[in-house]
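hey m, so remember when u said the tokens were messed up on ur end? i reran from scratch. heres the input so u can diff it against urs
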Amino acid sequence: MGDEFLEKIKGFNRTLVVHSKNGPHAAAAAMGMMAAQSKEAGPYFRVSDFFIPNVANLAIDEHNIDSEPIQIDADFKRDWLTYLRFTALPACGLKYKDSCTPQKNTIRFLNAHFRRIPATRARNLQESRALLIPSEYWQDYEKLVTLIKTGGDLKPYLSRDVLKKKCPDKNDRLLNSWGIQHLHFRPERTDQLLFCVITESDVFIIQALSHRAEHLWVNVELFQILHDNWPAIIARGKQIGLRPEEFSAARRFSLRGYNANFPVTVSDGTVYLPPTGGTVASGDALEDMINCDKIFWELHYWQSIITRESLAIRTALNMSTSKKLVVRMAYDNRDCCFYEATRAIRLGGFAS
């Protein structure tokens, strides 16, 4: 797979590239891994009988154009895009881009909300055995540790893309490929960076490295430390059937620049593919692409279910067939519910 080919397909948002001497077996392994991970994760939306929608304005109470009881006004895709425009993207410091497709705006949200910006919550801190903090940054590190353990806001310590450039939806190739985040020791930025993996409950501190280090963003030392200290958090990427292979730092850097994925072989011969699922040729995380597909499929699915049950909903609400039935879908990211919009009455009984 030459650079000319990689350059040609760079930017494709439905193309996964795995550069490997194992041939198609590596790509097949990557796709199988993500299929299993997607199935394990289940649906994107969690329909709740307890989530209370925030209804700012009631829909207009109108008469039906005829007396068909199955008539219903429902457009859950429109409701999702309204949520993105006025709630979800602004909460990430972003604006809805009318120049982008609904799917691309959804991926922008998924990238910023789930990956680039860690939720503000207290986390346990775990340090690798290889961790070395430069003496001049020790006090800064202690402050960061306290911030992590007490649930302080980490945004000032993230990449300058998040706050300074106001681009929290910009793809971080290291994060998308290996799940590794980097923090600055101070909000005003520092030469040394602290590399870590941030989960909902823990922060795994890997190593401090200089921002000026050559090929920093493809440094396999980071992956080796994860393997040596916390193999469980990268276990999804572990491959039994692939032969070990090595790439030079320059080649890894080049491949990452093309948004191509590649295996990593650690010192004991264990072979890993990107444990996050890696990136597609556009640079977007494959996981975000899969979740985006889930979202729009599930919006269509739930609209078909609600439409099918329109007569039962009318009966439960004691609503005359002469009145227009208006059902909306409300969201708090993954949690959602349905409600009749002229009365602001939540519809229960649909939770799985």
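this time it looks ok to me. The mean pLDDT is 92. if urs says something different then somethings off w ur setup not the seq
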